[in-house]
Specification:
With 77 residues, the chain is an alpha+beta fold. The protein has two helices and six strands. This is Prokaryotic metallothionein.
Length: 77
């Protein structure tokens, strides 16, 4: 068994997420989201969907990017 790095649960069905050269161990998706999801730099929501990255800054969508002064950003539909 392995231990979740967020909640510390020692669980037989943990899973690993490999990202940017690191390996993370979680016992559920909510712990993985809590640790891995970027946070919108405008409204502070955790970005679970696509999000928008502008010059290394993360936003939940074009509206928040524009609110922070980023020009020319549009949401795709």
């Amino acid at each position: 068994m392995a231990t979740c790095e967020v909640c510390g649960n020692d669980y037989g069905m943990t899973f690993e997420v490999h990202a940017q050269g690191a390996v993370h161990v979680f016992d559920c998706f909510s712990c993985a989201i809590h640790r891995m999801a970027p946070i919108c730099e405008h409204c502070r929501v955790q970005i679970i969907g696509q999000g928008v990255e502008v010059d290394g800054h993360w936003f939940c969508g074009a509206h928040c990017a524009r609110a922070e002064g980023r020009a020319g950003i549009v949401d795709r539909v």
